[in-house]
Amino acid sequence: DTEVTQTPKHLVMGMTNKKSLKCEQHMGHRAMYWYKQKAKKPPELMFVYSYEKLSINESVPSRFSPECPNSSLLNLHLHALQPEDSALYLCASSQDSVIPQTQYFGAGTRLSVL
Amino acid sequence: AQSVSQHNHHVILSEAASLELGCNYSYGGTVNLFWYVQYPGQHLQLLLKYFSGDPLVKGIKGFEAEFIKSKFSFNLRKPSVQWSDTAEYFCAVTPSQGNMLTFGGGTRLMVKP
User: Fold this and answer.
1) Contacts of B90 in chain A (CB under 8 A)
2) Are residues A101 and B99, on separate chains, in Cβ contact within 8 Å?
3) Contact B94, A96 (CB under 8 A)
4) Would you say A22 and A6 are in contact if contact means Cβ atoms under 8 Å apart?
5) Binning pLDDT at 50, 70 and 90, where does residue B74 land?
6) Whole-number percent of chain A with pLDDT over 90
7) Using a CB-CB distance cutoff of 8 angstroms, which residues of chain B are in contact with residue A105?
8) CA pair distance B71, B64, nearest whole angstrom
9) Cα gap B90→A107, rounded to integer Å
10) Of A77, A88, B21, B68, which has the most beta carbons under 10 Å away?
11) How far apart are CA B105 and CA B7, in angstroms?
12) Confidence of residue B39 (pLDDT cuts 50, 70, 90)
């Protein structure tokens, strides 16, 4: 099973809302990633978790707050977002974050901020 | 920091035509190279990867890529495309240590039946 599951598939939120995106994998991977993909652009790395600890934060605004409750789960908490944050948010996982290897991607959550 | 360039933003081909998508990277050290594909409405999937060894890499669905170190290139090829190959193709790199992917801008391929 090489599946990374993301929920919800679509999310519409207002600028004052608080919402969370969820990502789950059961491949025993110890590295998990959040990417942001704007329309017609490539994915851009936001965060990397390695062994449930945040190892990389690519200067992401604090209105995005990642959380890794356990080795299978990765959340992205959203608060006070701006319309320009509307994008496809992708989660990925790999065996670890140090040795280069394949990252497996979820289908993404398409977020619209009104 | 590494960067990746994909020169063709949009490619339109007829079925059975041959495909070559360009990818060049910029980085001062050893890199690992990937091609990912994103079919309409689907998640990113790995087509093939190069870490070391034979610079001609074969992937899924009849795709192959050749790493030419002197040209900093990793072009994707397929001898005969099908309508089902319509998708967006991303070249990506990681440094030899660390697994942070940097993606190229993508090439949107449309195959006409």
Assistant:
1) 42-43
2) yes
3) no
4) yes
5) very high
6) 79
7) 36, 43-45
8) 17
9) 16
10) B21
11) 9
12) very high
Site from B10, B43, B96, B97 to mutate, A interface, most A CB atoms within 10 angstroms: B43
Angle (nearest 5°) at CA B17 between B108 and B53? 75
B62 touches chain A (CB under 8 A): no
**Strands B10-14, B107-112: pairing kind:** parallel
| Yes or no, beta carbons of A100 and B51 under 8 Å apart | yes
At A11-52, the pLDDT tens digits run 999 998 999 999 999 999 999 999 999 988 899 999 999 999
Are residues B100 and A56, on separate chains, in Cβ contact within 8 Å? Answer: yes
Strands A10-13 and A109-113: parallel
Which band of pLDDT confidence, cut at 50, 70 and 90, is reported for residue A1?
low
How many angstroms away from the CA of A98 is the closest CA of chain B?
4
Q: How confident is the model at residue B98 (pLDDT cuts 50, 70, 90)?
A: confident
The residues, any chain, with a CB within 8 Å of residue A47's CB and separated by 6 or more, are: A33, A34, A54, A56, A57, A58, A60, A64, A66, A76
